[in-house]
UniProtKB/TrEMBL annotation:
Annotated stretches, region: Disordered: 538-557
Source taxon at top rank: Bacteria
Source organism per UniProt: Calidithermus roseus
Keywords assigned: ATP-binding, Nucleotide-binding
Domain ABC transporter: 4-252, 326-537
Protein name (record): Energy-dependent translational throttle protein EttA
SMART domains reported for this sequence: AAA
InterPro entries: AAA+_ATPase, ABC_tran_C, ABC_tran_Xtn, ABC_transporter-like_ATP-bd, ABC_transporter-like_CS, ABCF_ATPase, P-loop_NTPase, Val-tRNA_synth_C_sf
GO molecular function: ATP binding; ATP hydrolysis activity; DNA binding
Length: 621
């Protein structure tokens, strides 16, 4: 079923043509990645598709009743809203579809009515109509709002509000989800849960993200927006990169061969022109060659497009520093009565590349701040010592440390003097943008300013807290290349697994007050620990049981709906069983833990026995 069709869209921003003749068609089940440099118009295209913006030319066509939901970068809620009211808002749309299905069911003998019912039923099922309750519980659990349903949204932090907006979008009953950086403010486990949720979603998705691992897992086509034009590629992001590399190589080879042939023909034509006056035969040959040359030029391949301008990052150091870069003992920290970590001893050696991972709120940034001396250890015996000659460069995810009243140029002038303009230009700040106040910069501009400042510090220990946030894929890849060439020691906090696996050789994992130190990249560590699994689905408030049969005989459609609801509940309970089995296989469990797990398993088995029995009855209908 077609969800949306965009034809020849044009859109301008001031004097700049942002989109030029962009066309796109989207069907239920499509999984599209939208990629391009910051400022290329990706978010603008999503807003045009959703109807928030109107194109200068072209049209966006959506069939009647089709709904697209856009994830806002800065969501706004009514202060009186609660977590529950926001999340359940989309249920109204699914309930309307259900009412319409029941209305049509009364006249299914009519072929036209049946065709309409069949289309609507397929759409209702794809959008999660039968799984509203289990999806709601899953979102609560997966985005960590469980037990907080009655909280007012006014008390949520910015990151929590963004996660709530994502949850509301997932439950919206929309035919297409327009996901603009959906992994912002999600930790690795939340990202993994989101991948699983999107796999079961039957509508279409368009995803903008700087997380390459996420894009590879949730997309099957790539739309590349570049210089106002949109090009489509089959496969995920990694496949797109490989195709582009091969395509660029082929285009360069074809263009080089054409230039060589052009030079050969020009030489022959030049010689013919010198001989033309000598005879009529030579004159006719010259005219023939000129005609063929004109045709040859008309068939010329398009000139190679130069690469998009990109930041060329470099983090130079004067000295790699001592062998023992950082030593710490008796590091302990808690918050609101909850232990974050209790670490007896840590040693960071020269040249190590350490990834710090764990759920949001586990204490990753806190641990880094304790190591840097910005926060004290709760243990009075805590000690931190850096080796002689260690220079620390710290990238704070809050991008603090700059005077918001100063312009970009004034900020850099204090660091570099007359070289400020050249440095800002090299870091992709156009001349006119260099006079913007720091407080008015976008997230991507502030991130580039912070990295530029870091590159001037000659630091041989770089501590980077979420450096890829707010950066487009091109800039993330430039940062990755710069850090691969960096000769100092790295300490990285990030939820971008692709980025970490490319750079890190050691992993620190914080979770539930526990600290693990593993001598390998995070991908290998997470595979070993089997952390990257879907969080167990929330348990139903009441044990599910077969619904009592009404006195009147149910229609076949109602019986099918009941069977599908039973299957969804059975799937949910089986997922809980798998999670309990995984928990039972962990080391360090107490006898009380094993007793709790055994009791929960017995309860779930009892519920499943009743559900299997009812499902068997319906399977024969």
């Amino acid at each position: 079923m077609r969800v949306v069709f965009a034809e020849d869209l044009e859109y301008s921003l001031g004097a700049r043509d942002l989109l030029e003749g962009v066309s796109l068609e989207l069907y239920h089940g499509d999984r599209l990645a939208l990629v391009g440099a910051n400022g290329s118009g990706k978010t603008t295209l999503l807003r045009l598709l959703s109807g928030e913006l109107e194109p200068v030319r072209g049209r966006v066509y959506k069939p009647e009743g089709i709904y697209l939901e856009l994830l806002e970068q800065d969501p706004r809620f009514d202060p009186e809203d609660t977590v529950e009211s926001v999340l359940k808002r989309g249920f109204v749309r699914l309930e309307r579809l259900e009412v319409e299905l029941e209305r049509l069911e009364a006249n299914l003998a009519d072929p036209e009515v049946y065709h309409r019912w069949e289309e609507l039923h397929e759409r209702f099922e794809a959008l999660g109509g039968y799984k509203r309750r289990s999806n709601y519980e899953s979102v609560l659990k997966g985005l960590r709002f469980e037990g907080r349903e009655g909280e007012r949204v006014a008390v949520l932090s910015g990151g929590e509000a963004r996660r709530l907006a994502l949850g509301a979008l997932l439950l919206s009953g929309a035919d297409a989800l327009l996901l603009d950086e959906p992994t912002n403010h999600l930790d690795l486990e939340m990202v993994d849960w989101l991948v699983g949720f999107l796999e079961s979603y039957g509508g279409a998705t368009i995803t903008i993200s700087h997380d390459r691992n996420f894009l590879d897992r949730v997309t099957r086509r790539v739309a590349w927006l570049r210089r106002g034009k949109l090009r489509l590629y089959e496969g995920n992001y990694s496949a797109f990169r490989a195709q582009r590399a091969a395509q660029e190589e082929q285009e360069a080879r074809e263009y080089a061969n054409w230039l060589k042939e052009k030079q050969r023909r020009e030489g022959i034509l030049e010689q013919a022109r010198r001989w033309a006056p000598s005879s009529a035969k030579h004159a006719r040959r010259m005219h023939s060659l000129e005609a063929r040359m004109e045709q040859f030029l008309q068939e010329a391949p398009p000139e190679l497009e130069g690469p998009d301008a990109a930041v060329r990052m470099h983090f130079p150091i004067e000295s790699p520093g001592p062998e023992r870069v950082l030593e710490a003992t008796h590091l302990r920290k808690g918050f609101a009565g909850r232990k974050l970590f209790d670490i007896e001893k840590l040693l960071v050696s020269r040249g190590e590349r350490i990834a710090v991972i764990g759920p949001n709120g586990a204490g990753k940034s806190t641990l880094v701040k304790v190591l840097l001396g910005q926060l004290p250890s709760d243990d009075p015996a805590g000690r931190i010592r850096t080796g002689p000659g260690v220079r620390v460069g710290y990238y704070d995810q809050k991008l603090s440390g700059f005077d918001p009243e100063l312009t970009l140029f004034e900020t850099l002038y204090r660091m570099l003097g007359e070289k400020a303009h050249a440095a800002l230009g090299a870091w992709m700040f156009p001349y006119e943008a260099q006079f913007k106040q720091v407080g008015n910069l976008s997230g991507g501009e502030r991130a580039r300013l912070a990295l530029l400042s870091l590159s001037l510090q000659q630091a041989n220990l770089l501590v980077l807290d979420e450096p890829t946030n707010h950066l487009d894929l091109q800039t993330v890849e430039a940062l990755e290349q710069a850090l691969l060439a960096y000769e100092g020691t790295l300490l990285l906090i990030s939820h971008d697994l692709f980025f970490l696996d490319r750079l890190a050789t050691r992993t620190w994992h914080l979770r539930g007050g526990q600290f693990d130190d593993y001598p390998a990249p995070p991908g290998e560590y997470l595979e070993r620990r089997k952390v990257m699994v879907l969080p167990e689905l929330a348990r139903p408030a009441e044990p599910p049981a077969p619904k009592p049969q009404p006195r009147r005989e149910k229609s076949r459609w109602h019986l099918e709906r009941e069977r599908e609801r039973l299957e969804a509940t059975i799937t949910e309970l089986e997922a809980q069983l798998r999670a309990l089995h995984a928990e039972a296989n962990q080391t360090g469990l107490s006898p009380q833990d094993y007793a709790r797990i055994a009791a929960q398993e017995a309860e779930i088995h009892q519920q499943l026995e009743a559900l299997y029995a009812r499902w068997g009855e319906l399977a024969d209908v």
